[in-house]
Design brief:
Elements: E1 3-5, H1 15-21, E2 30-32, H2 40-45, H3 51-59, H4 69-79, E3 91-95, E4 98-102, H5 112-130, E5 134-139, H6 143-152, E6 158-165, H7 171-178, E7 185-191, H8 194-206, H9 208-213, E8 216-218, H10 224-239, E9 249-254, H11 259-269, E10 277-281, H12 286-293, E11 295-296, H13 317-324, H14 329-342, E12 345-346, H15 349-358, E13 359-363, H16 366-380, H17 386-398, E14 404-409, H18 417-420, H19 431-434, E15 444-447, H20 450-461
Parallel strand pairs: 4-14, 5-6, 5-8, 6-7, 7-15, 9-10, 9-14, 10-13
Antiparallel strand pairs: 1-2, 3-4, 11-12
Helix pairs in contact: 3-4, 3-10, 4-5, 5-6, 5-10, 6-7, 10-11, 16-17
GO biological process, one term: threonine biosynthetic process
Domain Tryptophan synthase beta chain-like PALP: 93-399
Catalytic activity: O-phospho-L-homoserine + H2O = L-threonine + phosphate
């Protein structure tokens, strides 16, 4: 297995080099040169596997034996050993047609833990084996930052800097990041929105001299390993739905940056027989507009009750577009150039028909989000966070008669109590979250300017060279 760039101007890489590259050096995103297909017989054999065993089966297709099996096994079991649920991502049945995959049982109570606990172990492993410093740089709309920091805090040979939009994440999300006082962690609170933060990150990774000098590595879903790790729980969800024989299984996914839903697209290409992949978003509905009209055009930014999806430029969209063009790097590059010069991408005809075959999408308004939270609390005694509520609303819109829907619960409701409180629901915070409010914060507030961020990074990195 080799990995190539969506834009076609990077020499094929192995697994570890792909991990370390993150954003491709030509500005594209790394993808496998071919996608392995799991047979129906093999899929059936996987039903009895634990989450960790399933993880190892899927990753074995992609690692090229660059990591000895026992080392990969140790990383997998260490990564998921601190999850509060022994199943890692338990499947909860709410009705005969609706299941919820709970992805919030990791240390920061959000789905990002599932991939980032492993990525922290993987980066630490690579740092030790290659005796190299790793400087992780990422942007977050709320959950990635906390999960990434938790995954690498205190680890030797690794420093991490996370940019988050100042005042535009939930209070708990902010505290989970900024109450960490480890010397290898830097939090930059950026005046602007998530797209502003992400643009700075992409500009820095595109500066190949700076990227090389300071050993920058990606933790965001621009890194293919994030996508691959998330693919595992699509398989897990499908394999753990009761009474699904002969029924179509749809999955509804709260999505802002297109990474989580693209993991499902990858799972389908690997042979997982899913029905609809349903994109749930909010008023920042660029993905809904693309699916319905074929126009991908960033609009005006809106703050919502589901802030982790307050995104207008979906970084992983390029990966999907690459496959939509038939893996034509030239055509893909033309689309991305048009986005840069004209501010939009437009597709039509058979390509649009394919998009609408691959996905359904719904932009959920703030009030509908709150109404859904109240409805499911009253009818099922099940408290949804606002992002999961968007996923449930999209499930209700698109799940057909006799079909089964699985909605991903991407965060614990305690992370978004500002929204929950609006409908007079009082929740009891988990002890780990309640403790955050008494802790001091550590963050630096900066403008959304590349040079301002560079100054902070240079001070943080110091004069460290390439060898520890």
């Amino acid at each position: 297995m080799k990995y190539i760039s969506t834009r076609g101007n990077v020499e094929a890489k192995g697994f570890i080099d792909t991990v370390l590259m993150g954003l491709a050096d030509d500005g594209g995103l790394m993808v496998p040169s071919e996608i392995p297909v799991v047979s129906a017989a093999e899929l059936e054999e996987w039903r009895t596997l634990s989450y960790q065993e399933l993880f190892l089966k899927i990753f074995s297709y992609y690692t090229n034996d660059e990591i000895p099996y026992e080392d990969l096994k140790e990383m997998a079991y260490t990564s998921y050993g601190n999850f509060r649920a022994p199943e890692v991502t338990p499947v909860r049945k709410l009705s005969d047609s609706l299941y919820v995959l709970e992805l919030f049982h990791g240390p920061t109570f959000a789905f990002k833990d599932v991939a980032l606990q492993f990525m922290g172990e993987l980066y630490s492993y690579i740092s030790r084996k290659q005796n190299k410093i790793i400087h992780i740089l990422g942007a977050t709309s709320g959950d990635t930052g906390a999960a990434a920091i938790q995954g690498v805090r205190g680890k030797e040979g690794i420093k991490i800097c996370i940019l988050h939009p100042h005042g535009k994440v939930s209070r708990v999300q902010e505290l989970q990041m900024t109450t960490v006082d480890d010397s290898n962690v830097l939090n930059l609170s950026v005046h602007g929105n998530f797209d502003d933060c992400q643009k700075v990150i992409k500009d820095l990774f595109a500066d190949l001299d700076f990227k090389s000098k300071y050993h920058l590595r990606a933790i965001n879903s621009i890194n293919f390993v994030r996508i691959l790790a998330q693919t595992v729980y699509y398989f897990y969800a499908y394999l753990h739905v009761e009474g699904s024989a002969g029924k179509k299984i749809n999955i509804s996914v709260p999505s802002g940056n297109f990474g989580n839903i693209f993991s499902g697209y990858l799972a389908k290409k690997m042979g997982l027989p899913l029905g609809k992949l349903i994109i749930a978003t909010n008023e920042n509905n660029i993905l809904e507009r693309f699916v319905n009209t074929g126009e991908y055009k960033p609009g005006d930014f809106t703050s919502t009750y589901s802030p982790s999806m307050d995104i207008q430029v979906a970084s992983n969209f390029e990966r999907y577009l690459y496959y939509l063009t038939g893996e034509d790097s030239g055509k893909l590059s033309s689309y991305m150039a048009a986005l840069q010069s004209e501010g939009k991408i437009t597709i039509d005809g058979t390509d649009l028909e394919q998009v609408q075959t691959d996905f359904a999408a719904l932009g959920v308004k703030n009030q509908q989000c709150l109404d859904t939270i109240g409805k499911y609390q009253n009818e099922f005694g099940y408290l949804l966070d606002p992002h999961t509520a968007c996923g449930i609303a999209a499930y209700e819109a698109f799940n057909g008669e006799g079909e089964i829907g699985i909605t991903f619960a991407t965060a614990h409701p305690a992370k978004f109590d500002e929204a929950i409180a609006l409908i007079d629901i009082k929740q009891e915070f988990p002890a780990q979250i309640a403790a955050l409010f008494a802790m001091p914060q550590h963050q630096t507030v900066v403008e959304h300017d590349k040079e301002a961020v560079v100054r902070e990074l240079k001070a943080f990195y110091g004069n460290e060279g390439s060898v520890r």
